[in-house]
Each structure stands twice: as structure tokens, then as C-alpha cells.
Amino acid sequence: MRKSTSIAIGGFDGMHIGHQALFRELDDNGTIVVIETGYANLTPDGFRQRYTKHRIVYLKLGDIRHLDGAGFIAFLEKKFPKLKKIVVGYDFHFGKDRKYSYEDLKQLFKGDVVVVEEVKHNNDSVHSHKIRAKLQIGDIKGANDFLGHNYTIVGKRVDGQGLGSRELVPTINLSVKDFLLPKEGVYATLTRIDDEEHFHPSVSFIGHRITTDGSFAVETHILDGTVTCKEKAEISFVDFIRNNEKFDSLENLKEAIKKDITIANRMLKRLEL
Ligand SMILES: Cc1cc2nc3c(=O)[nH]c(=O)nc-3n(C[C@H](O)[C@H](O)[C@H](O)COP(=O)(O)O)c2cc1C
Ligand SMILES: Nc1ncnc2c1ncn2[C@@H]1O[C@H](COP(=O)(O)OP(=O)(O)O)[C@@H](O)[C@H]1O
């Protein structure tokens, strides 16, 4: 922090293409200042770091929300004594009732204030809340376009019913906390197991297993061989296949899963793995 000469300020949940436009304005000693609201669920906890090489510093919203414009600048200058440049987006607001904007920063800060113009995709302004809305309707492609990377969640391995490997296909069952889960259904995915470096092509199910025991599950079936997962896995979403369905028999569910596998293979083959 003592070395930081430039900072980008915001919530930065998702680290999407709008956020990345800010980071491009940082220099080698640039730091990303995340104002934590407690609502981040696209890139919770330490997950923002994987989408940037810049150092990230977290500030609690409660510690700064009462500050006026001058107070906020004084706070930043104390925390970053070498600060020369502040980077924010076109809609950045801060302070009590969010009443200060980049105009105030420009007036009050002695160094440079860079204001990044609105980043759009297909003429639609990119924002975290829109990415959440897309995931909630299963629009993975739309969410990924806004993110500039595949939406990725991490979970802890848990035991399943054991039915998968006996009657259907083997799956890794995950308990996922803190991440927003896409809508219930079946997805073409890439899965990274434990600390492996590569991702496996996979097909994943999120939802209540309404055909079997009714309980909620996040499961992934690996398409390129037999694997063992010890502790955790990471699911990277590529495309939506179908909604969660209730089948009359395990036999029909099995047929549907076979089709899902064919579709997932087709969707994933288009990618350079
Ligand atoms: C590709 C795939 C698609 C699935 N689709 C459905 C579904 O549409 N409806 C459903 O109730 N369960 C679905 N399941 C979940 C199965 O019910 C689940 O794998 C089975 O209950 C075995 O669970 P276990 O891994 O805990 O043994 C799907 C699972 C996979 C891997
Ligand atoms: N689409 C965008 N174009 C340009 N700047 C953006 C965009 N989205 C967010 N920003 C900027 O990035 C920083 C973080 O904003 P934040 O409110 O966390 O993002 P979001 O609006 O996606 O939730 C702010 O300075 C904001 O002005």
C-alpha cells in the first residue's frame, strides 16, 4: 500500500469487462481498492485475485460511507502516501447518500483522476447486477460475455447418494457457499479437481433432484475419464443445456443424461481445450 501510485476504486464483484477497463489504467504499482458491501457473490472472498495481476486491498463500506469528499480523499492519501492517480468509472459515487461523484474527486484530489467511460456489450451497459440476473435465468453465454471469462464457482466435495455411480453416471457432489448458483438445470462445463492445473470437459447438474430424493445438489460428471476428487472442485460454466426435470423412472433420467452428455461434448468441442 505504501508503494501504490495508482488505485482503481469500486465494488468489483465479478471482475467483469467494465472493471477490467479500469484496471488497464493502473500502472505497475497500481492497486485495486475493493469497497466491500458484503453482497459479493460472483467473486466472493479471495476470488477476485484470480482475475487480475494487481494487488487488491479491501475496505469495509462501513468505514468510509460516513466520509465527505475531502474526508474520503484524506483517507486515501493517508492509506496510499504515494498516490498520484485515481481511476473510477463513469457512474462511481461515494460518501453519505452516495452524493459525491468523480466531479468531486477531480476537484479535491491534487493528482490525476481518470474516469473510464461506460463499457457496453452489444449496446448494453455491463454491470454485476445484470450478470446475476443472467445467471438466474440460465443465460450463461450472456453472463460470460459480460464477465470476459467463464463464470466459475468453487465447492467442497461432499458425499452423494451413491446412486449416480450405481445406476446413472458417476458425479462429484459439491457443497457451494458464497457463490451465486445459476438457475436449476444442466450445463456444459469445465471442471478442475483439487489442485490440478487443467480443466476436464464435464456436464453439471444444479438443482433439486426431483426424480430421486428431492434434495438440492450441485454435481458434475467428468467426460474424459475416471477421476478422484479429494477435497474441492471448481466448475466453470460454458453453456446451458436444459431445465431440471422430473422423470417417471431412473431409466428415463438415464436416457436424458446420455443426451446431455452428447450435447455437452458438442458444445465443449467447439472450444480449444
Ligand atoms: C447430467 C445430469 C443431469 C441430471 N438431470 C437431472 C434432472 O433433470 N432431474 C433430476 O431430478 N435429477 C437430475 N440429475 C441428478 C440425478 O438425479 C443424480 O445424479 C442422482 O440422483 C444420483 O445422485 P448421487 O450423485 O447423489 O448418487 C442429473 C444429473 C446429471 C449428472
Ligand atoms: N460498465 C462499466 N463501464 C465503466 N465503468 C464501470 C462499469 N461498471 C462498473 N464500472 C466502474 O467500476 C467500478 C466498480 O463498480 P461497481 O459498482 O463495483 O460495478 P457494478 O456496477 O458492475 O456493480 C466503479 O468505479 C464503476 O464506476
Automatic annotation (TrEMBL):
Catalysed conversion reaction: FMN + ATP + H(+) = FAD + diphosphate; riboflavin + ATP = FMN + ADP + H(+)
Keywords: ATP-binding, FAD, Flavoprotein, FMN, Kinase, Multifunctional enzyme, Nucleotide-binding, Nucleotidyltransferase, Transferase
EC number of the protein: 2.7.1.26, 2.7.7.2
Membrane-spanning intervals of the chain: none
Pathway(s) it belongs to: Cofactor biosynthesis; FMN biosynthesis; FMN from riboflavin (ATP route): step 1/1; Cofactor biosynthesis; FAD biosynthesis; FAD from FMN: step 1/1
GO BP: FAD biosynthetic process; FMN biosynthetic process; riboflavin biosynthetic process
Keyword Kinase included in the entry's annotation: yes
Cross-referenced InterPro entries: FAD_synthase, Riboflavin_kinase, Riboflavin_kinase_bac, Riboflavin_kinase_bac/euk, Riboflavin_kinase_dom_sf, Rossmann-like_a/b/a_fold
Domain of life where this protein originates: Bacteria
Gene3D superfamilies listed in its UniProt record: HUPs, Riboflavin kinase-like
Gene Ontology MF terms: ATP binding; FMN adenylyltransferase activity; riboflavin kinase activity
Domain Riboflavin kinase residues, every copy: 146-269
Residue ranges of coiled coil: none
Family membership noted in the UniProt record: Belongs to the ribF family.
Role this protein plays: Catalyzes the phosphorylation of riboflavin to FMN followed by the adenylation of FMN to FAD.
Protein name as catalogued: Riboflavin biosynthesis protein
The species this protein was found in: Sulfurimonas sediminis
